[in-house]
Each structure stands twice: as structure tokens, then as C-alpha cells.
């Protein structure tokens, strides 16, 4: 084991500190500072801060030139109230690390510690702590930042813990591993009036009721293939919560999901056409906007081969079980620049699910995840 018991205890304590003080996408200033201090203590040769927002990059140079390998973890938490009795539970109302990003950061911190103790013989490693993964904006912002040009990784690797998969086991596959998704916000505006004279107003209630039924019906297919699509209503609002007002506006939030970015564009056009058809002749004005835009995530064949070699060397059981996933991940954007691959590390078959209010990252995975990453790095760079 490359980490002593004291090392692991200290990493667990750091992870739990991060868990207690979560910050949302785009607001990760204090988390980023904690990461920067950690990298500095772990002897990073260079530290780049303010990358794509609050992103932090720690760079470790080898003695000779060679490939650049980047590992990515995420900084941000979720806007969900944690419901647990843990001593390290979130101290911030309505915010919590319920996806395990605190654990992913601790894994990269363990890798940094190893790199400081056993310097690379060649190449370099870049440890990226990325902002704003949860809303899909972070990877794009990092790639668009001029400071990222000094890295230009040949390979990019990441992991995500996965409840429902046996503890410490890995799911890994070439090709598609995460679906594309986009949040579609539909606003319908008419004319508000007194509840006693609804005929004097223009209400979006009928159009909203139709869309609630017809938008999900656009989805088709159950297998995750090129024809798969899913539309999930996540929020709906009609007017103000008052008895004296006949509503003049409505809003509908829908998550669009497909296996490919090409299919996503087709689905967007279908959904927008449906909105136009439903609202035609209703006297309503419509506004459609998109947010939380995630491209599909596909693993490179060569990058997967390097991960498989590391998993075999470390004696970690792995298969393609459960892949691809319906859930989205903005890591796929790095594949446009580098050979990239993400693997999924089992958090246990009975472990609470991601984004559930009682979820907590299993601390025992810190050592497992770090071993896999370090073996991958050493195999590539020595």
C-alpha cells in the first residue's frame, strides 16, 4: 500500500471537511483554495488557479520529456438538503456533497501525495479540480480558458463512484458511457385577470396541461442506442399561488436525454415544434431557453486499454456491467482534445444513490481509486 494508515486518516478528515462546507457550481472559491493549499503542500511544480472559473490545476513534471496525463475531479456540490446524522454532514442549508465529488477530490489528493514522494521519470501529470460539473458548464469553461493551453494533455482520465455496483468493482467500456442531456425551459405568457372574470384574460393552463402529457410522449426506445430519447418533466408552474387571480403565465422545465449529440439536436427540434403546435391560436407568447447542457460521453479505445491494464495489475474486478448510463457527465468534452476515458467505481450494491439526501461517499474508496490512477500513470510514464 502506498498510503500509510495515518495518510488515509488524514485524507478522510480532509474529505469530510470538504463535505461539511459544500459550494454550488460556479461558487467553489473556498473549496478551490483548500485544493490549492493541498497541492502546494504536496509539492506540485506549478499550480494554476482560476481555471474556467474556480478550477485548480496542479502540475507534476517528470525528469525527461514525455506524454502529459491529466486526471480530473470535480469541485461542486448539489442544491439539495442533506438528511443524515453524520458528524461531518453539511453545515450549509440546502447544499450538500451528495454526488461524491468530495471523495473524488480526496482521491486526486492521494495521487498528488504519491507524485510528491515518487517523482515521475518522464512526461508530466496534471491534476484538474474542475468547477461546475453539475450544471454542465465547467468542462467547456476549462477548455475555453487560455490558461488550459499550457497543459494540452495526451490522455485524460476520470472516475465516478457508482452506488448499485459491487463495492470496489469497476465498470468500464469503450464508446458511449453517458447520455447527452439538456434542460429545456418553456415559458408561456398570456394575460392575467381577476379570478371572477377568467374570460377576460388569456390563460396558459390548457397549453400547459397538453404539454405535460405530450412532451414526455415524444420519447421513444428503451435500449440505449442511437434511437433512444427521453423527456422528463422536472418542474411546472402556473400563475401565482393565489385564489383571486386567473393565471396569465406558466412555465415548464423538461430534461431531454439521448445517446448521441446528433440525436439531441433532432429531439430539440421536435420538442420546439410541439410547443409551437400546442400554443398556436392560444394567444400566448412563448420563450424557450436551454441550460445544463451535457454532450454525450464516449471513452477512447486506447485510453480504456490503459485503464484495463492498471485494473488488472491492481487486481480490481472490472466489466462493462451497467454501461452506458442514462445519467450525464460533462467529462465527455475533454474527448474533443485528448484521448479520454472514465471508469465507474462501485460504492456498494445497497449504498444510497447519487443525489439522494442520505448519500455519503464511502471513505474506503479513496485508496482504491488512487491505486488505479497511480498504476495508470506509472504504466504510461514510469
Automatic annotation (TrEMBL):
<feature type="binding site">
    <location>
        <position position="355"/>
    </location>
    <ligand>
        <name>Mn(2+)</name>
    </ligand>
</feature>
<feature type="binding site">
    <location>
        <position position="134"/>
    </location>
    <ligand>
        <name>Mn(2+)</name>
    </ligand>
</feature>
<dbReference type="GO" id="GO:0016787">
    <property type="term" value="F:hydrolase activity"/>
</dbReference>
<dbReference type="InterPro" id="IPR002933">
    <property type="entry name" value="Peptidase_M20"/>
</dbReference>
<dbReference type="GO" id="GO:0046872">
    <property type="term" value="F:metal ion binding"/>
</dbReference>
<feature type="binding site">
    <location>
        <position position="160"/>
    </location>
    <ligand>
        <name>Mn(2+)</name>
    </ligand>
</feature>
<feature type="binding site">
    <location>
        <position position="99"/>
    </location>
    <ligand>
        <name>Mn(2+)</name>
    </ligand>
</feature>
<feature type="domain" description="Peptidase M20 dimerisation">
    <location>
        <begin position="182"/>
        <end position="277"/>
    </location>
</feature>
<dbReference type="InterPro" id="IPR036264">
    <property type="entry name" value="Bact_exopeptidase_dim_dom"/>
</dbReference>
<keyword id="KW-0479">Metal-binding</keyword>
<dbReference type="Pfam" id="PF07687">
    <property type="entry name" value="M20_dimer"/>
</dbReference>
<keyword id="KW-0464">Manganese</keyword>
<protein>
    <submittedName>
        <fullName>Amidohydrolase</fullName>
    </submittedName>
</protein>
<dbReference type="Pfam" id="PF01546">
    <property type="entry name" value="Peptidase_M20"/>
</dbReference>
<feature type="binding site">
    <location>
        <position position="101"/>
    </location>
    <ligand>
        <name>Mn(2+)</name>
    </ligand>
</feature>
<dbReference type="InterPro" id="IPR017439">
    <property type="entry name" value="Amidohydrolase"/>
</dbReference>
<dbReference type="InterPro" id="IPR011650">
    <property type="entry name" value="Peptidase_M20_dimer"/>
</dbReference>
<keyword id="KW-0378">Hydrolase</keyword>
